[in-house]
Amino acid sequence: MQLLYAYRNRDISRVRLSLESLRLQTYENFEVIFVDYGSQDNYSKAVEIIVNEFEFAKYWYVGHPGLLWNKSKALNFGIKKAHSEFIIIADVDVLFTEHFLETAVKLSQSNSFSLFKIGYLSKEVTEQQQQHLNLNHIQTTHIGDTFGIGLFPKFALEAIGGLDEFFHFYGSEDEDLNSRILMSGTLRNNCDDLLLYHQWHERYPQKRKESLQIQPRLTNVLRLNQRHFLWNESQQMLHPNPKTWGNCFTKSDLKTLEQPDVVIQLDNILAHLEHCFGEDLKKHPKKVVQVIISEAAYYNTLKYKIKQSLGKQTQLYMSMKAVNDLILKNILFQYRDRNYNYSISDDLKQIRFTIDFKTATHGKI
Fold this sequence. Notes:
Residues 9-132 form the Glycosyltransferase 2-like domain. With 365 residues, the chain is an alpha/beta fold.
C-alpha cells in the first residue's frame, strides 16, 4: 500500500504530525510518496528533513517556484511513481487513526474505490495533538465526508489519466476525479467509520483573494474550477489529460527561463496587454519570451482619475490585480503544460511572466 502527499509551502508542523500518525499504524507494510511541487527553498529544505526522518517515506521535489500550484500534477507524478496495487491519496492536514491502514487493506477491491468520514479539530485540540499525539476519544467540531482522501486501485487511476491537470490552486479536482472513476465503471464505497481527523489551520482571508498579493491568486478560481468539473461531467469526459500526464518540469528548467530571447516591456494599458496576450506572444515560436508589466505612474494621477470620471477619451488602464488575472487565465487555458515563471514584485507594481516556447511541453520527469 502506498500513500501520496502533494505539498507546497505549507506549515511543516502539520506534515510532521500527519506522518507521525502513520508511524503508529497497526498495519506496517506501506510507503509514502511525498511530492513537493515547487515550494520555495526555505519550505522545501525544512520539509525534506522532516520527511526523511520517517523510514517509510520518500521525498520528491518536482516543478519549481515559478509555476502555479497544481495539486493534480503533483498527485499524478506520484501515481506514476507508485508501484502498489492500491493507492491512498492523503493530505498533510490529515491525521490517521491507528487502524486506518488496516481498515483500508480490508476495503481494497479491484472494482471499487473508498471514501472516508473525517472529523474536524479545533485550534485548541490541534495544538494539544502537536504536543502529544493521541487520537483516542478526541473531540471534533464537526464530522464531514471526504472527496480528496480516498483509497483507489492504481489501474483505475491510470485508466482515466489521473487527476485533470486543468485544475489550479484549489477546488473541484477531487470531485472531478471521483466522478470520472465512477464513469469508468469503478464502484464507490463509503466507509462510515471515523478514521481520519483534519488539523485546524487558518483559512486564507476572502478579502485578500480579491486584492493583488505577492502569492499569485486568481479571482473566482473556485467557480472556474467548479465549472470545469461540471463541464467534464456533462461531456462524459473520461480522460481529459494528454498522454504525458504525470510528467513534471524540474527546478533545473527554471534556469532555461533566466535568459529570454525576447523581452516585451509594457505599462498596464488595457489595449496593449490584450494585444500582447491575444496576438504578440504567438509571433515568437521556438523562443523564450519575457513580458514585464509595470504600473504606469499616470495610472494613479489625479488627471487620469478626473478624465475617467468625466468620461473623456483616454487610454484605458488595468489595475495590477486585473493584469494578474488576465495572465493567470492565459496560463490556465493556453500555457499550463509549458515551462514558465510567473512572479509579482514585493511592491506589487510589476509582474513578470517568462515562458519557454522552445522546448516540449509537459515536463521531463
